[in-house]
Write a structure and sequence with these properties.
The protein is mostly beta strands. The strands form two sheets. Strands 2, 4, 5, 6, 9, 10 and 11 form a seven-stranded mixed β-sheet that branches. The protein has a four-stranded antiparallel β-sheet with strand order 1-3-8-7, with no helix packed on it. A hairpin with a 4-residue loop joins strand 9 and strand 10. The termini are far apart.
């Protein structure tokens, strides 16, 4: 059974940094793309950044130049380095993987979410 486990969220002052990690495991054949999304209270989940072997990286305009997404293909892991954090980055951050399983088929899977809070 596929699981995505996130870590690294927390409370930080404006201008500070955090690094989010996400580890995928359980019956994975291959991972096409991995992404980070965030959700503000009362809002829909929005894409922060994604990364895939063929297409490279993609960032939301609001985080360009501050956030960096990276992958460890051997570990089925994805990371989000967040620098120069702002109070408006406060949200729950979710890891997403579009992958194929050993039993066939492909689908999107989500982590449980990790809270990032930036104080002013």
């Amino acid at each position: 059974q596929v699981q995505l486990v996130e870590s690294g969220g927390g409370l930080v002052q404006a201008g500070g940094s955090l690094r989010l990690s996400c580890q995928a495991s359980g019956g994975i054949f291959s991972i096409n793309a991995m992404s980070w999304y965030r959700q503000f209270p009362g809002k829909q989940r929005e894409l922060v950044a994604d990364i895939s072997f063929g297409a490279g990286t993609n960032y939301a305009d609001s985080v360009k130049g501050r956030f960096t997404i990276s992958r460890d293909y051997a570990k089925n892991a994805v990371y989000l380095q967040m620098n120069n954090l702002k109070p408006e980055d406060t949200a729950v951050y979710y890891c997403n993987a579009h992958l194929s399983t050993l039993t066939g088929g492909s689908n999107d899977y989500w982590g449980q979410g990790t809270q990032v809070t930036v104080s002013s």
